[in-house]
Amino acid sequence: MLWTGLLHLLVVLLSAHTSLAIPAFPGAEGFGASAIGGRGGSVYIVTNLNDSGAGSFRDAVSQSHRIVTFAVGGVIKINSRIVVSSHVTIAGQTAPGQGITVYGNGLSYSGADHSITRYIRYRMGKGGDAGKDGITIANGNNMIFDHVSVSWGRDETFSINGDVSNVTIQDTIIAQGLQTHSCGGLIQTSTGGVSIIRSLYIDNKTRNPKVKGVNEFVNNVVYNWGGGGGYIAGDSSEKSFTNIMNNVFISGPSTSVSPFTRGNANFQTFVQHNYYDSNKNGLMKWFHRIIDTTNSSFTGKLDGAELAATTDNYSGVAFVGTRFNYPTVNKLLAPLDAYSTVLSGAGMSKSRDNVDTLLVNEVKSLGTSGELISDETVSPWNSGGPIAGGTAPKDSDGDGMPDAWEKANGLNPNVNDASGDKNGDGYDNIENYINSLV
Ligand SMILES: *[C@@H]1O[C@H](CO)[C@@H](O)[C@H](O)[C@H]1NC(C)=O
Ligand SMILES: *[C@@H]1O[C@H](CO)[C@@H](O)[C@H](O)[C@H]1NC(C)=O
Ligand SMILES: *[C@@H]1O[C@H](CO)[C@@H](O)[C@H](O)[C@H]1NC(C)=O
Ligand SMILES: *[C@@H]1O[C@H](CO)[C@@H](O)[C@H](O)[C@H]1NC(C)=O
Ligand SMILES: CC(=O)N[C@H]1CO[C@H](CO)[C@@H](O)[C@@H]1O
């Protein structure tokens, strides 16, 4: 009887513990879904577009246990790289106007355990540090990137390389690694898993991505990779264990090699339903140029086929018969549905800037438009600006939650009550606010 009682207590305790593992935010998926971010910490409101100092983005992410919101929109021009601390939530969706673009250099997330980054643009550019990436993760665990637009890396654009585990990159655009290196990025871990979900790799000469370790690549679109390769399957003497499911690969003007290259028998992979449109027969380039400014809903025809699972098509990898038991997605899309979901939703899509709009229109040309670039300051990229600033809603107590939202949700607009959990759902009040915006 006593033992049964103790056992029961143990079961209750264990399930109570399990129920604490809420997702980073509703809709968080993959290996990084349980990142905690700044939950339980304080709110830091970014109030200016300065490179550094009080109220700046750099200052906001310099300390752990913070939920970072924005009372300004626009371009934050940075000179040196920004280092993100552990246990930080970056809620780009709170910025008014067209949101936030961080331009001029890259960011390090090395050691940024339990970070959550949403709805923000990181555009490095040719003035950034030579040999550095748009986003670098050299070590750390439990990170999730959601609806991020990252471009113009000087070395890699989004690079994970080292002792890294439990990372998700979802609904993100990884674009235009600058020439001459022009890389999407390494996604190489020596330890844990990385999920890349519903994201767009576009206009990178090579490494779109280059994968090693434990990885799932699901419902992504890869467009206009260059001669260096699309998905590079390991190219390694170390073992990899991967799922590659329901993705779409589309050749563009720079594409000269097949989607999968440099695999070998160390690269164990489960593949299914990967679709390849190789014929570059989209809209005539001149016609696309005309209509992409007048009617962006006009698209060419996606007329490829599912890649047969031959070792030739997948460059000598070792196929496995059953899917590795990784977190995967809540809803696996058919490749062509993934294509439209990525085109409409990937990147900082709460408000797309000119750069992402142009990139998405390149994909819609289905083979005729797209380019590898070496200088983002020239037209039409124009350094990623301008970005409309907008006006933040009234927040009398400065707790990051607007008065109107606080009143509607039974909170006090005159008291800082950001870190309470009024509705008992496990998220801080401020998290309910930031999650309600998207
Ligand atoms: C932000 O930068 C502007 C312009 O350099 C300066 O006037 C202002 O004092 C800075 N704000 C803070 C909080 O440092
Ligand atoms: C990664 O996630 C798995 C599954 O939730 C967990 O067992 C493991 O401890 C995590 N690793 C790290 C380093 O947090
Ligand atoms: C844009 O193109 C689409 C597809 O051809 C067409 O259905 C739509 O009517 C066009 N819209 C405008 C405003 O011309
Ligand atoms: C690759 O897949 C395509 C489409 O399914 C198929 O037609 C082709 O024969 C395959 N090529 C090789 C070399 O296996
Ligand atoms: C440095 C380098 O190899 N650049 C190449 C990138 O890819 C484009 C198109 O595939 C080539 O034209 C460049 O020469």
TrEMBL record:
GO terms for molecular function: lyase activity; metal ion binding. The keyword GTP-binding does not apply. Residues 374-426 are annotated as: Disordered. SUPFAM superfamilies: Pectin lyase-like (SSF51126). The keyword Transport does not apply. Residues 1-21 form the signal peptide. Gene3D superfamilies: Single-stranded right-handed beta-helix, Pectin lyase-like (2.160.20.10). Transmembrane segments: none annotated. Keywords: Glycoprotein, Lyase, Metal-binding, Signal. InterPro entries: Pectin_lyas_fold, Pectin_lyase_fold/virulence, Polysaccharide_Lyase_1. This is Pectin lyase-like protein.
